[in-house]
Amino acid sequence: MTHSLTFEAIAEAHAGPKWKSRWDWSWPAYETWFRSHGGDNGPSQSAIEVALRQYMPELVATHGALTRLAGGGDRVARFLSGWCPPAYLSGCSLAAQSQGGRVRLVRNYDLSPELNEGLLLRSEWTGRPVMGMVEFLWGLSDGINEAGLAVALAYGGCGTVARGFGITMIVRYLLETCDDVASALARLVVIPSHMAYNLVLADRAGDVASVELAPGGGMRRVGKAIATNHQHSVEAADRAALTRTVERRAHLEHLLRSTAPEDLRQRFLEPPLRQDNYAGGFGTLFTAEYEPARCAMTLAWPSETWTQRLNAFREGRRTIVYAQEQTAIPSACAWGEVGTTSSSGAPMQVDAWLGQAIRGDVADWSRFGRLAAWVFASPASGSH
């Protein structure tokens, strides 16, 4: 099976036809995911408006504008709020290094190519220029703002879900409102995350940090500005053997001792940080390097790079073809059933099986990755 992903760079200061076009393209798949994972049973529209006003008042107007542009309605408003969303996860490696005024934040984003939007968006929704890799149509997995603050996320290795914001919404909020690492850490103390996630931050002055966010609230700053897919407070991370999270973190610790900031990106393009299990849902889709002093970022793959600056952003597209693997979804799979069985021998429904996977009760993570890719890529879902 050939895996590929088209990356698109778009600049739109205020949400308009370009954002709406992406919404129309992506929403059918997101809506299927949101509904099938209990999104309609979440907080009411009035409750999410209260949460936004309490924790992210600066984004209330933007949320309203995006909701109207997307057609309005309770489900759209709840999805776009990022408040108490269904569980989601991805694998990543992060590191920030500062030496003699040279600062870099580098991340690998590891997932199935079918489950990433591939969108690099430059916006000025709150008046501040921000660019980053979009998730959930306006959240960010990583990005940088005009002040030179860069932030990136990694799944924390625990599937527990609690009352809080999705992490991509938190990253967006930090970049829209904070100037440096210190101000971002102050905000993180009071904003609850709905799952365990790790963040690495860097700023123009050379300050770097790594924090672990607990489900429902709570932040712990850890010593080195690195992160993979487990936390110090978690005894056993989800799918640790598959993701090699402990091995990757140990490698990052070595890199910080032996690698200059400007050389980190190349190290991230090599094993064990770079992953190639695309069919299993755990392949490196892109390496992103952020340079706070220049408000610049570079997307990198083994064969090419793509550099953007906030004050010289250029729209465009790049299609990346990943490794070929002879792996396919079993033909017995259908939207209603997974194509696997429970311990009693009965067919398992998608939601039930995915729920067990999130809780760590399913060992076959390769099948989980293939199933998720199939669900979102199938014609019935309307996905891309």
Describe this structure in words.
- The structure is a single chain.
- The chain is α+β, with helices and mostly antiparallel strands and 384 residues long.
- The protein has three domains: 14-81; 91-321, Penicillin V Acylase, Chain A (4-Layer Sandwich); 337-381, no CATH class.
- It has eleven helices and 18 strands.
- The strands form three sheets. A nine-stranded mixed beta sheet has the order 10-9-8-7-6-5-4-1-16, covered by helices on one side. Strands 2, 3, 11, 12, 13, 14 and 15 form a seven-stranded antiparallel beta sheet that branches.
- Helix 2 (45-55) runs parallel beside helix 4 (74-81) and helix 3 (60-69) crosses helix 4.
- The model is unreliable at 325-384 (pLDDT under 50).
The CATH class of the largest domain: Alpha Beta
Helix content estimate: 25-40%
Taking the sheet with the most strands, its summary is: 9 strands, mixed
Category from helices, strands and their pairing: alpha+beta
| Unreliable residue runs | 325-384
Determine Rg (CA atoms, Å). Answer: 19 Å
Distance between the termini: 16 Å
N-to-C series of helices and strands: EHHHHEEEEEEHHEEEEHHHEEEEEEEHH
Shape: globular
Task: From the structure above, extract its key features.
3 domains, 28% strand, globular, seven-stranded antiparallel β-sheet, 384 residues, nine-stranded mixed β-sheet, alpha+beta
